[in-house]
Design goal:
By secondary structure, this protein is mainly alpha-helical. It is about 30% helix and about 5% strand. It has a domain at about 140-379. It has 15 helices and seven strands. The strands form three sheets. The protein has a three-stranded antiparallel beta sheet with strand order 3-4-5, with no helix packed on it. The chain has a two-stranded antiparallel sheet with strand order 1-2. A hairpin with a 5-residue loop joins strand 3 (about 270) and strand 4 (about 275-280).
């Protein structure tokens, strides 16, 4: 009798278009505390903490309290990555997709407060460039590229390295890293992607930073603008993805660097596992906060700055910062870059990187190829 009544009920429901639906029981085990605020969409998670979770009604239960509780008005605009904050107001937050909702209200006319302990910078002395060390011989590719080039002025060199140069997309940098920064000669990192701020050897295509994907060293690697993009107001021009200064780096250490200028630090407030340092600057001519990379890449970073000052001369109209004004480096920075350039000549791997960069971007960094060029153009 019960069975017959049940079948009748099913038939009636079918006639009237009623459908029985099994209710799926879900026990939420994920949280923004574990996933991270504004992390990329995770298909395997039972709830999300990205910026669109409200739109799709799949936010974790702690999203509102944990991820929407901070603002740039509280954190302050600019500066370095702030571990533990649910959103960021650093210069790089747009790249990682983890900016606070009021980040657009940040501007260079209302920057984050600077430490009151830093006195005004004294005038920088004129320093003669040191004698450079031993440079490797020019490769065959370099000889062909520079044949007939006039190297006597910044304008002439700029013309040579601009003509034929290709603008890469920001995403194309990931592809370049898989070949351009892999298996460099003389490097212990063979088979993986070279990291400028740590000794970790990254698996090509894996471990790339997205959202708030790093909480400690070794979590992931990202794209470090060694000449920070806030120094030219983040305009997405050729400089935004230029391989000679946008380099693979540990995301956490890159966040600690933020947009601090390069300098020499003897009393660091932060030191990475490899020895990169943040702290008061000891470099003559500037006494604010600096970031000092390890000796392993000081020459590379210096030649990247020297390149930027020529390649983008007259193109970066913004901004007047501690180390630069537009594309023109300030005297104290020039003196330091010339010092590092001479003290740390390009090893074989850097010369090979120059060849690979030419193959991808269509131009070369002349300061990797010519030992005397920096002193000639910058003094």
């Amino acid at each position: 009798m019960w069975t017959r009544n049940f079948l009748v009920a099913l038939c009636i429901a079918g006639i009237h278009g009623v459908r029985f639906k099994r209710k799926r029981s879900v026990t939420a085990t994920s949280s923004c505390q574990s996933i991270g605020c504004f992390a990329d969409y995770n298909r395997s998670a039972d709830c999300q903490c990205n910026k669109d979770c409200g739109k799709y009604d799949n936010c974790c239960s702690d999203f509102e309290s944990l991820c929407n509780g901070a603002s740039c008005a509280v954190i302050g605009c600019g500066g370095a990555y702030q571990p533990g904050q649910p959103c960021q107001c650093s210069d790089d937050c747009e790249s990682y997709g983890n900016c606070c909702s009021d980040y657009n209200e940040c501007s260079d006319t209302n920057p984050a407060p600077t430490p009151t302990s830093s006195p005004p910078s004294p005038p920088s002395p004129t320093v003669e460039p040191p004698e450079p060390g031993v440079w490797p011989p020019l490769s065959a590719a370099a000889e062909r590229y520079w044949e007939g080039a006039n190297m006597n002025t910044k304008g002439n060199v700029k013309q040579r390295i601009t003509n034929g140069a290709r603008k890469l997309s920001y995403g194309a940098l990931w592809t370049f890293y898989k070949s351009g920064w892999r298996n460099l000669p003389g490097q212990p990192c063979q088979g993986g992607v070279f990291d400028v701020y740590s000794t970790k050897c990254w698996t090509p295509g894996n471990g790339q930073c997205g959202g708030s994907g790093y909480r400690k060293e070794g979590d992931c690697y990202n794209r470090e603008h060694s000449w920070p993009k806030s120094w030219w107001d983040r305009v997405k021009n050729s400089a935004y993805s230029d391989v000679f200064h946008v380099v693979p780096s540990d995301g956490y250490v890159n966040g600690k660097r933020g947009s601090w200028p390069f300098g020499e630090v003897s009393s660091p407030t932060y030191t990475s596992n490899e020895g990169n340092k943040v702290g008061p600057c000891d470099t003559p001519g500037f006494s604010g906060t600096c970031f000092e990379p390890t000796d392993r890449v000081k020459g590379l970073m210096a030649r990247g700055h020297l390149y930027m000052g020529v390649r983008y001369m007259g193109e970066l109209s913004c901004c007047d910062k501690d180390a630069v004004n537009g594309a023109e480096m300030k005297e104290w920075t020039i003196a330091l870059m010339l010092k590092w350039n001479a003290a740390f000549p390009p090893p074989a791997w850097e010369s090979e990187f120059n060849n690979r960069a030419q193959g991808s971007q269509g131009n070369r960094n002349p300061f990797i190829d010519f030992s005397d060029l920096a002193g000639k153009l910058y003094r």
